[in-house]
Design brief:
elongated; 23% strand; alpha+beta; four-stranded antiparallel sheet; Umud Fragment, subunit A; five-stranded antiparallel sheet
Amino acid sequence: MRHFDSPYYPRRAGVFSPLLARGAALNRWWERSGLLLVEGVTIRGTIGSVFVPGLALYLRGPRVSGLAAMGICAILASVSLVFLGDSLGTTALTLLIAIHATGVVAYYQPALAATRLLTRLVAALMLCALTVGCVYLPIRSYLEKHWVVVLRVRTQVVLIRPLSSADVLRQGERIAYRSEEINGYHALIHAGVNFAPILAAPGDEVEFSTEAFSVNGAPQPRLSNMPQSGSFTVDRNCWFAWPDVGIFAHGHGVDPSSVEMQLAMVSKKQIIGTAYERWFWRRQSF
């Protein structure tokens, strides 16, 4: 027997009916959001203008200029990401934010046209702050947590990959790590961020001499301020990374090697991440 829907009974709800109902409700809200907030300004236009760079200029018109602004914003966003940390990337990001914020202010121009100059200035500042706070600050936070951290090492900018697992750390890999304040050995070292290669991993044997230091018996050139004697085994969940810092000692009793030994023992919780060898096609030099 073939099955037909009865004209006397409603169809049974399907498995996806609740999801479809919520989707329909969201669609109705989006259609209603086209209603005017004030003259010439809608909820939908406001949301789109804040979250899509250049869209405000497209909505306010002329459309050709708006499309050009959106294209320029896309190019600037790409340049700022590829040249992250470089002066070119910083300039592109500044121009992107300027165009984006200017467009949002222009979108609200019909509502602000009849107001006083001071009111327009305050409203423009608030709209710019809204744009930066809702778009660019969350994007920066997301990038620093999941993708890339921009670190300045002296006069150079280094791009760091946030650490996802300690299993990826290898000897010779350069890491960025936080160092705590050290107040001892007649010296004071303020808390900060260091950048250095991993010299030894957990469980490795490190031995010092006057001419060199060795890791598991393999000799390497002695680095500045290293101890001239002694040995130790790197603790579990720690890495040995000798910091490149300048210590200026005044008076007697200051032992730079003891201070730097404390900085060199890096725990997992201190590590920010590892340095990218390449960022897109750009090779990093250290």
